[in-house]
Amino acid sequence: MRLQVYHRTRYQYGSPVSESFNEARLQPVEVPLQRVHSFDLRISPQASFKCQKDFYQNHVHRFDILGLHQELLVEATSVVTTTRPDLPAEDAEVYPLSEMHRCLVMDRCYDFLQPSAYIVPDEVSRALAREILQGELDAWRACLRIMTFIHEGFRYQAQVTNAHTTMAEALGLRQGVCQDFANVMIGLCRGLHIPARYVSGYLYNGPADQLRGAQASHAWVEVYLPGLGWLALDPTNAQAAGERHVKLAVGRDYADVSPFKGTYRGTAQRTLGVEVLVTPLEDSPGIVPDLHRQAV
Fold first, then answer.
1. Between 20 and 30 A from 196 (CA), which of 64, 120, 138, 211?
2. CA distances from residue 40 to 27, 61, 64 in whole angstroms, order as listed
3. Do 53 and 113 sit in the same domain of this protein?
4. Range of 172's domain?
């Protein structure tokens, strides 16, 4: 599926501010199931930026605005082609859950088995994970059970949590948004020695408004299973993350993949507006040139 993503972030300040230092993770990653055709970043006030990759190979654009300004506008436009993943059947036996502890010695998995800023498994969450499994012995089926439990047992409700809500807090509330659902699933999986990482991105909903978290920044989970690698699951919608999902970045939790963050000198009075629009494009290679455009 060929999709265009437009993401606009606008900060408006109560009085002029200065010395603004920022970083954005708004460029989709190039991975086997996702091809990035173009990326365009525009900043106002005008600023030059540098693009680097962070520890987890996400694209990071850093820029500074030193002079006085009362508004900061960041617009990112991307065009990608996504592909449906080929996942095991729901009843498949993929890898013994009792052997998942072996992942602890794998470099690619170590960070995603440890506690992180917003996700700290404890005895309460580990006991809940064991209760959800009901004796399940396969790691893949265990992940599916956890995903289903969250989808059925949690209420999707905006404005009861925020970007800094922890896994434990969301677990106590049993409600929240996609970020909270992802944090809970990651914590429950890590408590079972299943490597799990946070994925930020977007979700195209299509003509029918049936999926939660669409037309906004979205979050889901990738779990690692030996022999298969990283498999993407969306607990908010109880389904595999597929061709409607556009992948931006991965990390231990939201702290590693925040789409935009920064500091500045000046008033604490500010308002933030974020707009996201995901639209399908004709499946024609002639519509968008295969190049990476970056502009300010």
1. 211
2. 8, 12, 18
3. no
4. 97-242
